[in-house]
Amino acid sequence: MAEPIVSDVLTRIGDLLIQESNFLYGVSDQVELLQTELKLMQSLLKDADARQDESDILRQWVTETRDLAYDAEDTIVTYALKVASSEEGGVLKRCACILYEGITMHKVGSKTVNIKAKISILKTSFRDYGIRESIIQGGGSGSLNERQRQQRETYSYLEDDVVGFDNDVKKLVEFILKEEEGNRIASICGMGGLGKTTLAKMVYSHHIVKQHFDCRAWVYVSQQCQRRHVWEEILISLQSKDQRDEIKKMSDAELVEKLRQVQQKQKCLVILDDIWTIEAWNSLCEAFPKKNTGSKILLTSRNKDVSLHADPRGFLYELQHLNDKWSLELLDKIISHRKGCIQTISKTRMEKLGKEMIGYCGGLPLAITILGGLLAAKQTQEDWENVLRYVKSHKENFGVNKVFALSYNDLPCNLKPCFLYLGIFLKGFEIRSKELIRMWMAEGFIPQIQHGEDGEDTMEDEGERYLQELVQRCMVHVGKIGSLGRIKTCRIHDLMHDFCLAKAQRENFLLMSNICSLGLSEEHIGKIRRLAINWKSSDECLRGIKLKKYPYLRSLLYSMLHLNHVYVKELCFKNFKLLRVLNLENYTRNLPEDIGLLIHLKFLSIKNSTMTSLPSSLGNLRCLQTLDLRSHAMSVPNVFKKMEQLRHLYLPSKYKVSEKLELADLCYLQTLENVQPKTIQTATSFRLNRLRVLGVWRYYKEPAQDAIQIVSSCPHIHKLNKLPEVHQFSPNLAKLTLRNTRLNVDPMATFENLPNLKILRLLHKTFSGDTMVCSKGGFPLLQSLVICRLDKLKEWRVEKGAVPGLCRLEIVACMCLNTIPDALGFIKNLRELEIIWMPKSFKDRLIKGGTDFYKVQHVPSLVFQWCIL
After folding, report:
1. How far is 792 from 770, CA to CA, in rounded Å?
2. Which of 170, 394, 544, 817 would you call most buried, defined as having the most Cβ atoms within 10 angstroms of its Cβ?
């Protein structure tokens, strides 16, 4: 995968020559010559990448080319950053650095000349080997660029494309709704790629199932079952996410007892997705009561014996491969649902070509889905016929991995590293899309573009389109959709993850601590650039980690959930001066002072860590784009003002400062979460013009004016959390969350006039009054409304013509509320209504046969949870 790397490096070097020319004084000529040499090499790499398997020497040359491109960027960027740093230090520092810079300039010049010479030699070697030059397409794939233009504003996300599951769903739903004692476990079995998880999701989200069960939980078990983690996730889902910290403090015995109590008191549905072994079930089963319960379990497994062992009297459903008719229908469904397929192929010809291709997929839905995603990206009949020729040429061993390889090879150059980067996450992991895109940005996979003021696109918007393209090609699946319609989480199928990780490791793109000993093997030639140390690693592997062996790392992900992190010594950052991404979730030690040496760092997360303070050297990280400090109480230094590239700042939920934080000069800041108004220096000129997401936390006795100052200084907010008072808002506001504001005046009178508000969440003690009113014509764009724990609310009125577009309503623990408004019966768009922790009398009025059922009988999904009082 040298071609995408060289392409990315060329883009970044080009940006440097334009944007940072002042800081390349004295070496710009050598940099331009090196850039030219890399461009000439790029024309050979498409063919070289495709033929790597022909010989070890060719693979070695490709690896050397990739490493030289990285070395070139590291050398040039490091020099520019050091010069920039000395320029900002004033006259004295500038004079002191002149001699040092002269020495550095000489070294940089020598290094670039040396790299250029090595690339020239490799270029000759490629040509002598018979590697052919190709025409370099500017701007990446034409297909991608065209489809990006079609997707500038919105994107529709479809459920998994499925065929032939209607009868399967019906049978499974019938079983889990049965009340007979003993019939408690249903199982879906079959090989990987048959659609077990998809079928389970259809059952889990079935409207009758949602109405029947009081609460539901879904947990992914995986090949390496972590018993404690599984139990915790189930209980958190069955109770409340607000109780997560309390649940994590329970002992195993307390956790099991609580789980059993919940399942005996309520009708619960628990999905155990992808459980591999009988031993895994035996380790989990004590948390599930066998008698006196209306709760049910649905598990998916590749091992039929697991299902038979778990409950011999249970319902076992064995998935089968698709027949030719269903296979062709699935392919057609995928292609017709994907955007961008230009209809230059006749329907008859498409069916003929498609029928011939699916014959080689063996009726495996996953293989057909990936093939469909690939064909949907093809523009002409010739493209389709080329795919068919590939399939035929590999017909003897054409299977899911060949389909994956075909789809991967067809990716535009700029998407290949983005796809391989997914391998850095654990199999089955629900990937947070914002975090993924920001890591892509930090790595340089997304080009530098405008910063989003006055409607211009941002790098984040571009990253979203990259992710959308991978979804379109069926290589990535959408997990959760955010409240504003964007991808919130994503995932890749287990088999696709296996392919991704194998490809990434063979390309020397990354290493995973849980599948390798972190010692270089024959498979790993070249410099290791990305490393993930995770909680699924064996003790032996963790003991053997020697981080100093990897000085060229660009990404380091360190995510531990239990005590095996003690085998990793305190990180010494002087060894990782080239890091761009550092993710230290759940890290248990404070950051050392030498964190300030990571001058290239663009993404830093210490989320859920136990750190108590941050070093002042953090201010040296001038290139940071994302800084995530969401953890417990922590002392925070006033150093953010130095991070001029900062775009996303997440402060701890509680933090202390010795002096007020200066943020006014962070002109690229888009996200500011958990900010306490009293800790911010808000001068008259305080202005965050590009801020889109603001989370304000104000203690109850704190003056409201400070918070109002921050809100009024952010004209482009589209998401606002935890606002303490309601006076001034941006007209762009699309999502508003309030908590603990204790407002005495009905907030609806203000909120209903916000022209672009789509999501409104009124949480714990937001409003202290007893009556709320939504007026006619109010909330013209509101789609989702959550009313939670408004303890004194007795009456909620909605006038006819208010909230016309409301799709989802959630009412939680408003114990004094008598009933829902009559006008909800006229809102035809209302698709989901969830009633949680409300009195039983409230529920009885809304169920079929109840006095208020007429208000909700048109709602397809009506769900009650924990309505027992």
Report:
1. 5
2. 817
User: Is the CB of residue 186 less than 8 Å from the CB of residue 298?
Assistant: yes
How distant, in Å, are the alpha carbons of 84, 186, 216, 460, 620 from that of 93? 12, 71, 62, 36, 15
- Do residues 333 and 212 both lie within one domain? no
Annotate 771-793 with DSSP letters as a single string: EEEE-TT--TT--EEEEE--TT-
CB 623 within 8 A of CB 596: no
Give dist(CA 789, CA 278) in Å, integer. Answer: 42
Question: How far is Cα 766 from Cα 401, in angstroms, rounded to an integer?
Answer: 53
Token pair for residue 764? Answer: 């714990």
Confidence (pLDDT) at 450: 53
d(CA 789, CA 868): 16
Sign of dihedral through CA atoms 621, 626, 632, 633? positive
Q: 341 and 361: one domain?
A: yes
Residues 102 and 193 in one domain: no
What's the distance, Cα to Cα, between the start and end of the chain in Å? Answer: 61
| Phi, psi (rounded to 5 degrees) for 54 | -70, -35
Domain tally for the chain?
Answer: 5
Range of the domain at 757: 734-869
Q: What is the pLDDT of residues 40-98, one digit of tens each?
A: 898 888 888 888 878 889 988 988 998 999 998 888 888 888 777 766 555 444 444 44
Q: How far is C-alpha 452 from the geometric centre of its chain's CA atoms? A: 21
Please name which of 318, 319, 331 lies closest in space to residue 359, comparing C-alpha atoms. 331
Nearest to 371 by CA among 396, 341, 344, 405: 405
Burial class of residue 42 (count of CB atoms within 10 Å of its CB; 0-12, 13-18, 19+): buried
Residue 471, domain member (yes or no): yes
What does the alpha-carbon distance between residue 119 and residue 188 come to, in Å, rounded to a whole number?
54
| DSSP codes, 203-225 | HHT-HHHHHH-SEEEEEEEESS-
Q: What CATH number did the domain enclosing 444 receive?
A: 1.10.10.10
Is the domain of 406 the same as that of 361? yes
| pLDDT score at 621 | 94
209, 177 contact by CB (below 8 A): yes
Name the nearest CA neighbour of 601 among 617, 586, 585. 617
Q: Is 431 helix (H, G, I), strand (E, B) or coil?
A: strand
Pairing, β 634-635 against β 655-656 = parallel
Q: What is the residue-wise DSSP string for 17-36?
A: HHHSGGGGTTTHHHHHHHHH
**Rounded Cα–Cα distance for residues 431 and 423 (Å):** 11
The list of the chain residues with pLDDT below 70 reads 20-22, 25, 86-103, 135-161, 181-182, 338-344, 449-456, 514-526, 535-546, 560-571, 682-686, 698-709, 722-728, 868-869
DSSP 660: -
Residues 131 and 176 in one domain: no
- Amino acid at position 375, single letter: L
> Same domain, yes or no, for 248 and 354?
no
Rg (CA), the chain: 29
Report yes or no on 30 lying in a domain: yes
**Contact at 8 Å (CB) between 98 and 15?**
no
Q: Report the C-alpha gap between 192 and 187 in whole angstroms.
A: 15
CB 473 within 8 A of CB 407: yes
CB atoms within 10 A of CB 678: 14
Residue position matching structure tokens 């230009």:
342
User: What is the helix, strand, coil percentage profile of the chain, to 5?
Assistant: 45, 15, 40
Q: Which residues pair with 736 in a beta bridge?
A: 720, 760
**Closest Cα to residue 781, out of 469, 527, 485?**
485
